[in-house]
Amino acid sequence: MIKFILNDKIINTSANSGMTLLDFIRENAQLKGTKIGCREGDCGACTVLVGTLVKDEISYHSITSCISPLGNANGKHIVTVEGLNLPDKLNTIQQSISDNYATQCGFCTPGIVVSLAGHALHKHYSHSHSHNSSKDAISGNICRCTGYKSIEKASDEIEDKLSTKDHQKPIEWLIKEEFIPSYFKDISARLANLQLDEIGKTGVTVANGTDLYVQQADRLANENMHLIANEASLKGISFENDKCIIGASTTVSEIMQNERLRTIFPKLKSFLKLVSSEQIRNMGTLGGNFVNASPIGDMTVFFLALNSTLSIRNETGTLRQIPLHNFHQDYKKYDLQKGELIQSLSFNIPDSSTLFNFEKVSKRTHLDIASVNTACEIRVENNFIAEAHLSIGGVAAIPKYLDQTNKFLHGKAINSETITEAEKILQSEISPISDVRGTKEYKRLLARQLFFAHFIELFPNEIEFEKLIIL
Ligand SMILES: Cc1cc2nc3c(=O)[nH]c(=O)nc-3n(C[C@H](O)[C@H](O)[C@H](O)COP(=O)(O)OP(=O)(O)OC[C@H]3O[C@@H](n4cnc5c(N)ncnc54)[C@H](O)[C@@H]3O)c2cc1C
Ligand code: FES
Ligand code: FES
């Protein structure tokens, strides 16, 4: 049986783990406030909150329920818009939306209310610019009719109200300020008392479903599922000596919020804000990104440039290790045998002489997949390149580690001539095709411009921008 708390009610259901959480909410629980829009994770109409208990503390994040397997709700608190209603008045978020005329037909409004409630409940919420803003929180909510200015005004008003949030007693404060109803104060204790059954041990392997469910939600509704999103051995970010190890079921948001990683990569937040939306970042895992094997997988391109190693375990628990750049073999073909799972990824923590950059161009800046994306790690010794790892997506059948270009750069002085020569090698290594994300000529141009962008960003004093254009 799958057990979870839906708003203030305990659910004990024999429904199949593979059905979507959205269908359970609307059809089984008959809660129609959660809307169906695109059914592909793109519009945010189906947004709900997931509360997870970790050591007596509950943390909430938003997800799109249309591409989430019901089984992943086991042991969680699921909050729909109905679960945010106060008994006899609008809650603070709903009131701000009404006061700022931030709703017209209202179809998107429940999703926006839930996303903003997720922002208010988020334990990392603070006024510091290093954390997400209320506008980031609604980055995955599309509105067709109101116009975003009034929605932004409402979200700014909510941000102001949250500036006095009591971080010692956040739930109590949010109840007092009428953001959430009072039943929230007992949820931690109620979750701790749920006696959970083991579910989702065999069947189709799914982490958080943002790739699998976009295409296959109907088929998976009746399948047995092997649920790995919450498996402890696949979770977590740890640091051992000079290595960082990240569990395969770690999400993009968990990477983005990790304080140590943010120190190692000061621009981490701006890099990862280019990946999907808040809801999808809260779901999308590293393992899912690698095994989906899209030639433009952002996290794959990011970690290729860190010269990462994968730990892969088989059914008996035996581990083998391979470089990430040997994992993808051809379009959607990769080195994973039946029964194997990616357990984790590791990379050497860049030292002070190592610089990293990530670039992505897509048809729109946010909530879009890349036309071309690329990452670059360069270790410098006495103005010479001691080590180079560049990767690029969208220009080959696989996310490409630029082997030849990296070899060429090794030992070279950093100047415009080197970069110009290296770019010619890069062009000989890639084989873009024309598709909806651009013609092959456009992708070659993007590959060149983004390659130059890495060096202009990382070595502004060594690279003469004008020379790159003229040469
Ligand atoms: C609206 C939307 C926007 C998106 N935007 C982006 C974007 O900007 N950039 C981007 O790169 N991607 C994007 N994606 C794609 C997707 O979010 C990512 O690829 C994500 O990382 C997939 O993770 P998941 O856990 O959801 O994968 P799932 O769908 O759960 O799994 C995908 C595949 O990986 C397998 N798998 C998962 N984990 C493991 C493991 N540990 N070992 C072995 N196999 C495993 C599953 O069996 C499945 O075959 C977007 C998706 C959506 C719906
Ligand atoms: S229905 Fe559009 S994101 Fe789920
Ligand atoms: S108010 Fe109509 S879609 Fe947003």
Widest sheet: strand ordering: 2-1-5-3-4
Overall pLDDT metric: 95
Backbone CA Rg: 23 Å
Record field, number of beta strands:
18
Multimeric state: single chain
Task: Quickly give the CATH architecture of the largest domain.
Answer: 2-Layer Sandwich
**Domain tally:** 2
**Percent helix:** 25-40%
Shape: globular
Tally of DSSP helical segments: 18
Q: Quick one: biggest sheet?
A: 5 strands, mixed
Q: In CATH's first tier, which class of the largest domain applies? A: Alpha Beta
Uncertain residue segments: none
SS-based class: alpha+beta
Task: From the 3D structure, determine the CATH topology of the largest domain.
Answer: Uridine Diphospho-n-acetylenolpyruvylglucosamine Reductase, domain 3
Residue share in β-strands: 15-25%
The end-to-end distance, rounded to whole angstroms, is 66 Å
Unique bound compounds: flavin-adenine dinucleotide, FE2/S2 (inorganic) cluster
